[in-house]
Amino acid sequence: MSPTLSRPCPRCQTALITRPARYCRPCARAVSAARGTTTERGLGWSYQRKRARIIERDHGICWLCNQAGAETVDHVVPRARGGDDSDANLRAAHAACNMSRGARIVRAPKTHGRREPKTGPMLLRISHRSP
What DSSP element (H or E) covers 127? Predict the structure, then answer.
């Protein structure tokens, strides 16, 4: 087994941290507090109602892993890449699946033999057609 490498916290440069931590605990708390609540970030009650509606629409099934129990909403085209908050761009997702994806655009989710929900947006797919 390889040794775990420690590195200094990028914020305070004094505490040593190991992966997967991004910051030491005090700095992580400060970064989280500075980020603010969903309401402070402009995602108020209307977004929370939309979140509940999207999770209900998708029957609580994560669009990334196709498992039940999705508790967050994920953007198909991330906001960082120009996506919007329309219902067509939102899908139910587990928090872990949502965070692991980041701001990448997923071309097709893992289906594991299950079909996608009947409602919702079409996924971005690449099709190869011969001319």
Answer: none
